Amino acid sequence: MTMPNNLSAPTDLPALIAQGEGETLEFKRSVAELEQVVETVVALANTRGGLVLIGIGPDGRVVGVDVGQVTGERVANRITGNTDPAIYPSVQVVEVGGRKVFAITVAESDNKPHLAAGRAFKRVGATTVQMRRDEYERLLLLRRQSLSLIHI
Question: The pTM is what?
Answer without folding.
Answer: 0.88
